[in-house]
Amino acid sequence: MLRVAAEFFELPAEEKMKLYSDDPAKTMRLSTSFNVKKEKVHNWRDYLRLHCHPLPKYAPQWPSNPPETVSNYCQEIRELGFRLEDLISESLGLEKSYIRKVLGDHQQGQHMAVNFYPPCPQPELTYGLPSHTDPNALTILLQDQLVAGLQVLNDGRWVAVNPHPGALVVNVGDQIQALSNGRYMSVWHRAITNTKTARLSVSSFLCPEDDALISPAPELTRGDDGSLVAIYRGFTYAEYYKKFWSRNLDQEHCLELFKNTIE
């Protein structure tokens, strides 16, 4: 998968630019930074964004270098994501399939971002991606095996997540935080740049169906005194995703906008 990613970004600029778009609604596009229409400081990143489910619908739109490798990777990642969702449900004391059913079961959306971070002459002025959480349910990351760049926030400190051969990094996203009523927290993370070496990564996102209604599981909203305490109001994933993409990436946590008002 990383070899295919490298081959794509080695294509001539004029060929790649045929795919360029800054419209987040497009299901296949090459873009840069995060939201170039709103940012004051751009991020040092180019990325190819692909929708991945259902494969027969979207794979014919992809660049052909070669689609079989990417299709196989998408299918394996999807099955891994479902297993993780089931384990998270069980860890919360919920029915095994609870999270999958809320997110849309096998109709869940799936996207991929193939990220390219070129060498940056002044890395102190920007990031590959600034600190943020992901708006989806789960992110499964394949890191560059030679060059580190991912950092996660842990107890107020930024900690490097160094690559390990054969390992994937799993980040909990905003939708799992909402469904678990804050028992699971979406992961604050960022990508740093360096002056000498380019870096690749592949981020796979499992997302609810657009009309999936996201709200804390009722079993997780009971307070110690028997009262019901739901931190977040109900919302559709389409509503959340639209709000997320209308903002700068480094603003306050988007979930803050969906908290219940406490009288």
TrEMBL record:
Q: Which Gene3D superfamilies match?
A: B-lactam Antibiotic, Isopenicillin N Synthase, Chain
Cite the PROSITE patterns for this sequence.
FE2OG_OXY (PS51471)
Question: Which Gene Ontology molecular-function terms are recorded?
Answer: L-ascorbic acid binding; metal ion binding; oxidoreductase activity
Q: Where is the Fe2OG dioxygenase domain?
A: 108-208
Keywords for the protein's UniProt record, in alphabetical order: Iron, Metal-binding, Oxidoreductase, Vitamin C
* InterPro entries referenced in this protein's UniProt entry, alphabetically: DIOX_N, IPNS-like_FE2OG_OXY, IPNS-like_sf, Oxoglu/Fe-dep_dioxygenase_dom, Plant_2OG-oxidoreductases
> Which family is this sequence assigned to?
Belongs to the iron/ascorbate-dependent oxidoreductase family.
Instruction: Report what the protein is called.
Output: Fe2OG dioxygenase domain-containing protein
According to the entry, what is the taxonomic lineage of the organism? Eukaryota, Viridiplantae, Streptophyta, Embryophyta, Tracheophyta
